[in-house]
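Why does residue order matter? Because the sequence determines the fold. Keep that principle in mind as you read this record.
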Amino acid sequence: MRDIKLPMSASDAKSLKLGEMVTVSGLLFTGRSRLHIRAVEDDIYPPIDYEKINCFLHVGPVMKQNGDEWEVVSCEPTSSIRFERYGADVVKKFNLRTLIGKTTMGPRTAQALKETGGVYLTKIGLSGNALRGQVKKVHDVHFLEELGKTECTWIYEVDHFGPFFVAIDAEGNNYFEELAREADAKMPEIEKALGIPENYTYTEVNG
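Structure:
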């Protein structure tokens, strides 16, 4: 398993394959709903160098202050698909190369990542308590008083952070969409083996 240095280079991003497991080391910034909304709708965003800190972690961490320093109590990645409405605009606005979160993202964000040569990494079988030990230093925080510890933006230095797997590659291919297509292609054979008629209609459940 490779450890990718941050900021991720264009060549590293292009070399990553769907489903490949990786860790990352270097500087990243955090955010969730408020960062997306403010950056897109109000043009308000953390004043950081997005060429040097080019990895965006979707997380609302639990933080604890010890004197003048901050400690990460937990940093469980949050579901990324709920940011799809703003995701593509944020990727293009900051020319992001690396997104890290949970679940997946939609076609607009995938297209934006293709344009910036970026990738989306997602968690599997990880807990926020496990990841906290891979945060070596909290370098800075932005909008803490305004947004609070969960919605503000933290700057973390991480070491072998993960592992995560490549859910959207630099060509805009989505691991979960390809998995769904493979499953759909195999369904007729599976249904035949189980004796399910070709014209069988599954019950639709409406909430």
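Residues 175-193 form the longest helix (19 residues).
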